[in-house]
Amino acid sequence: MRALAVGPRLDALRARLEASPAAALIVTDLANIRYLTGFTGSAGVLAVTAGAALLTTDGRYRTQSAEQVAGAGAAVEIAVGGIAAQRDAVRSLLSGSHRVGLEAEHLSWSDSRQWGDLVGEVVPMSGEVEALREVKDGGEIDRMAAAAAIADAALAQVAPLLADRLSEAAFALALDTAMRRGGAESVAFETIVASGPNSAKPHHRPTARVIGAGEPVVVDFGATFEGYRSDMTRTFCVGGDLQGEMARVFEVVRASQAEGVATVAPGVPCKEVDDACRAVIAQAGWADRFEHGTGHGVGLDIHEAPAVGPLATATLVPGMVVTVEPGVYLPGAGGVRIEDTLVVTEDGSRPLTNFSKVVAASVRGRGPTEEPHASLDQ
Prior knowledge:
Layout: H1 9-18, E1 24-27, H2 30-37, E2 45-48, E3 53-57, H3 62-72, E4 77-80, H4 83-93, E5 100-103, H5 109-119, E6 122-125, H6 128-133, H7 138-158, H8 168-181, E7 186-187, E8 192-195, E9 216-221, E10 223-225, E11 228-229, E12 232-238, H9 244-263, H10 270-283, E13 295-297, E14 304-308, E15 321-324, E16 327-330, E17 334-337, E18 340-344, E19 349-351, E20 360-361
Parallel strand pairs: 1-5, 3-4, 5-6, 12-20
Antiparallel strand pairs: 1-2, 2-3, 7-10, 8-9, 9-12, 10-11, 13-14, 15-18, 16-17, 18-19
């Protein structure tokens, strides 16, 4: 697995600051701190100027911060102590800075006022580090591929349990456990298992409802490996194929998702991917039942830039990692969503998630890429 190229990231941020209204930036979002320094602790602040960078944290992370920053090859000084000592260290570093940027999305109004009182003139900044995170390097993609492989294998392991009249919550627990046993450090987000009428709720939380035969079961989940996440959704039907209107919903969503995946390529506006998926569903008469964006970026966070939706403004470039996840939801009846995570390549894209898109849940433990006999398989 390729190493993470953390070293150049601070200089890339400094280049962005040169074109901004701020001479320095206080980074408070923990994922952004990890991206820039390699530090994974739960408490810390990073101050970046044109010539220096300072990470502050408390005594719990004295050894960890030193090891991780050195291991990542980040040119960062570290100050360890209580809150007052940390803030004094930041104030000392920034004493010569005319304007200091704050991550507007990650600070409360009260916190912003406190930083202003401490370092002087502050200005809101938006997405400076996140813009760097949009394009993944080889080491990041390797970790996301590993997370996706863990998730694929875990679903292959536990999918037969869908035929055992488990509850949504019990199946979610089995899937989460299989991912941890397979090498995930954690789940990527709270696993969604939504059966029957619950499948019409895009962000349903698993309940004690028993999964029944013949009904749709939406499973949306992912694994985390060395900080990087995967994201995949599959829709199953226990014991056979969906029938009636839900069978048509599945075919339309599958066609929509395939169209979106085929559209992902460098130079393509993200909005066009959303348009491609939405057009298929609209033609089928369910435009008003596709009520969320087509996808999003994935990385250290499960939702990050670029957005893939009706209002998206970004254009895809090689190294971006995005999801394509159209869905149709019919209240009272059920819903279908199919999702893959894809990395944009020089000539198109390739999927990181590879579990089969068959509608029927197998009780034979079919693997991630084995093709089933069902007519709805892609």
